[in-house]
Design goal:
The protein is mainly α and about 80 residues long. The protein has one domain (about 5-85). The protein has 5 helices and no strands. The protein has helices at about 5-10, 10-20, 30-40, 45-55, 60-85.
Length: about 80
């Protein structure tokens, strides 16, 4: 897997299509993608937020992205806190 393949996968169109495809799961994919970004900071959070806004509407998409980002931050903080102790 080279860099061009990764760039093609993380486009707004592809992420929007992915969220639309899994929309039957409700907001779970829209929350899990920003949550994953907390653990892998090189992932493009802006693309995930725009994809959520496209799939769920501006306010619901922003809310799902915010919930995912906050939940991921709490999980990452808790994981690191346990590792340090």
């Amino acid at each position: 897997m080279d860099l061009d393949t990764i760039r093609e996968w993380f486009t707004l169109d592809h992420i929007s299509a992915l969220i639309q495809q899994y929309r039957s799961f409700g907001p779970i994919p829209g929350i899990l993608l920003p949550m994953l970004e907390a653990f892998l900071p090189f992932l493009p959070l802006v693309v995930f937020v725009l994809a959520n806004a496209t799939a769920f509407g501006l306010w619901w998409g922003f809310l799902f992205s915010w919930i995912g980002a906050v939940a991921g931050s709490f999980c990452f903080f808790g994981l690191l806190e346990d590792m340090v102790k």
